[in-house]
Design goal:
By secondary structure, this protein is an alpha+beta fold. The protein folds into three domains: 125 residues, no CATH class; 71 residues, Signal transduction histidine kinase, dimerisation/phosphotransfer (DHp) domain (Helix Hairpins, Orthogonal Bundle); 150 residues, Heat Shock Protein 90. Helices cover 54% and strands 22% of the residues. A five-stranded antiparallel sheet has the order 1-2-5-3-4. The longest helix has 59 residues.
């Protein structure tokens, strides 16, 4: 699938998912508002009825104006301005709320009109035992003027709970959207994997082609009569075939080794060692290569504590790979800086170069198996994209950490840290 097609699919998918989510939120909000409006209307009507009943009990005239004021989303005040018997009030409230299917828990309070203060309050739950509620002793006031208020503390939560079908549909929608998003991500990952596999096959073909071609050409030369009469030429060509065969065998083993890494851990021989010795070993192996290219390698091994528990061979290979990359991925005279320092209870190793650098979009993938950063011609630098994958695996198996920072065109710096023994 072409990149352009995948980009269009991704864009349309994002727009579709965003539209579905927005519409679901909109309709859920509409349903909530409608249910809340219905709830408020039922409460308003119930409280108006209760207020009128209290006025009738007190033999007071019912005013033409509304007795109920809604001061907030869940707080209502009923102005009866008369005597209130809380036993009667609570019974009327419960009866009216039940008639209108309002079975939410509520609080009510009785206020003194003259002093504007709460004189009594109670919490009513429809889930409690009715007998227990009826047996309570409730106060009553006479000869003074009072009004009462009702509050629904769990109003929003209970309204949301009543929107069961909407909640279930939202959950189903989220599952569908999640599956859709997962599918899109999977498509992108498959595309990236296909590109990596394609690059790997191209590199592997190129790496295998050279020794195979050399062996074929040399074997033809051995069949010539003049060569067969010359023992020195036979030995020379036989050595070349053997050398190329060993090279081919080594490359095959490198590829097969990856499968071994996936199936089981690398075999380590841990010992107490000085990490500076491993660095010196890698530096000595590559310093002459750097000098031949007109470059320079500087080292500042300043860590005063440098002993770690590690595998000497694999740790030396890690440093060798990083310094070797600093030389290979460089179009100028290579300048490599190797330094160490102590931080907390660790030793830090920095390997810095002045090479071609790495684009930010590639940094997060350089440790992936088979991944190689594109540098124009894929065959400029030989390899299978296994070096940094191996480096990270060894570092992690040693309970270490590795990070990289890079500026394209200016160079790259790798920072490794290992716990001290």
């Amino acid at each position: 699938m072409k990149s352009r097609t995948i980009q269009i699919i991704f864009t349309l998918a994002v727009i579709a998912i965003a539209g579905i989510v927005v519409m679901q939120v909109f309709w859920f909000r509409q349903a909530f508002d409608a249910r809340e409006k219905q709830f408020d209307q039922n409460v308003y009507t119930a409280l108006q009825t209760v207020g009128e009943q209290i006025l009738q009990i007190n033999q007071q005239q019912i005013p033409n104006t509304s007795l109920v004021n809604q001061l907030s989303s869940n707080y209502f005040v009923v102005s009866v301005n008369g005597e209130i018997d809380t036993r009667v009030l609570e019974a009327l409230l419960k009866a009216e709320f039940r008639n209108r299917d309002l079975t939410q828990d509520f609080e009510y309070g009785v206020y003194d009109c003259n002093h504007q203060k709460l004189v009594y309050g109670n919490y009513v739950s429809f889930t409690k035992d009715e007998k227990q509620l009826h047996d309570r002793e409730l106060p009553q006031w006479k000869n003074d003027l009072y009004y009462f208020s009702v509050n629904f503390p769990e109003k929003k939560g209970q309204i949301i709970g009543s929107l069961g079908i909407w909640i279930y549909s939202s959950i189903v929608l989220l599952v569908v959207v999640g599956f859709f998003a997962f599918s899109i991500i999977a498509i992108f990952r498959q595309k990236q994997l296909a590109e990596v596999q394609k690059d790997f096959v191209n590199n592997m073909t190129h790496e295998f082609k050279t020794p195979v071609s050399t062996i074929l050409v040399t074997s033809r030369l051995l069949n010539r009569d003049e060569v067969q009469r010359d023992p020195q030429s036979i030995n020379q060509y036989s050595s070349l075939i053997q050398s190329e065969a060993l090279r081919l065998k080594s490359q095959v083993e490198r590829v097969l080794q990856v499968a071994v890494w996936d199936e089981r851990k690398l075999q380590y021989k841990f010992e107490m060692l000085d990490i500076h010795e491993c660095l010196e070993q890698a530096i000595n192996s590559l310093e002459h290569v750097i000098m031949e290219k007109g470059g320079a390698l500087s080292k500042n091994l300043l860590a005063t504590q440098s002993h770690v528990r590690a595998d000497r061979l694999h740790l030396s290979n890690v440093f060798y790979n990083l310094i070797d990359n600093a030389v290979k991925y460089n179009q100028k005279e290579p300048r490599v800086e190797v330094s160490t320092a102590n931080a907390r209870n660790e030793i830090e190793i920095r390997i810095k170069d002045n090479g071609i650098g790495i684009e930010a979009r590639n940094i997060r993938r350089i440790f992936d198996r088979f991944y190689r950063v594109h540098t124009g011609d894929v065959h400029d630098v030989k390899g299978f994209g296994l070096g940094l994958y191996y480096v990270k695996k060894v570092v992690q198996d040693h309970k270490g950490k590795i990070s990289v920072s890079s500026i394209p065109g200016s160079g790259t710096e790798f920072l490794l840290s290992f716990p001290l023994s």
